[in-house]
Predict the structure of Chain length determinant protein.
Amino acid sequence: MNNIQNQDAQFTQYPNQQLKADDEIDLRELFAVIWQGKWLIIAITAVFAIGAVIFAIMQPNIYKSEALLAPASEEQGGGLSALAGQFGGLASMAGINLGGGGGVDKTQMAIEVMKSRRFTSQFIQRHKILPDLMAVDKWNMVDNSISYDDELYSLSTNTWLREVNAPFKPEPSMQEAYKVFTKIVSVSSDKDTGMVMVSVEHLSPAVAQQWVTWLIEDINQVMKERDVDEANRSSEFLTKQIALTNVADIRSILYKLIEEQAKTIMFAEVRDEYVFKTIDPALIPEEKAGPKRALICVLGTLLGGMLAVMLVLIRHFVRKED
């Protein structure tokens, strides 16, 4: 009886030491359980490691082509900017943007246009790249050709064969194509330098390089056509206003505005690189950009090891409670 009382007194006096001892016993128990189940842990980890290696090897190489661009739109703004302060109100009535301080930056607008659904859909349809976007199976290095998935697309008959549920159709819609396109195409700008980087990832390095080149050409052409159309409409409006007024000062102002619109049209017609100048053109990449096979193998092995340890511990404590 005295011994029991002494033990209770010791526990009451040193509870922290008793809890610490229990914690140490629990840790030793955990390590003992893990050691007892080491062969199961090794086996599961090995299975995951082998699976990760096989998965990594089966992944096709991805090639990335990119181009560095510089904004070229500022060069055309001199004359219009000079008139912005004097004739801004009249120009606004005509629907003309004279490049004053409150407008949207043309470079940023071009970037957003490149990311838009409309531009992407027109790009895919214009260059007929839907099979290369949605049905590629692999790239053949020997003859630089592309093989398509037979279950999705038939190259010989140029028909789509994929099986989908309504409302989807065998031929992918532009909405589906847009989702895939935005995953492999990147357009970004550097806030410090103003430079723009356009990149494309694809199984074929030649296709990646070609798409980057087409993207730059198309965005320059689209932005050029927008400005030319706007300048032509503005010129037509101003010409009508000249015919309706007899005030010499107003007619003089309108003629100056028409002159600036003519300069805009002339500038657009003589420049192919209307919005972006190519500083570093896209090249056919020789080295792959992905996948990171070593990283896949390491992560797969670590995942297998952690799951194996958890399985061994859970099994032990389930048996212990039973």
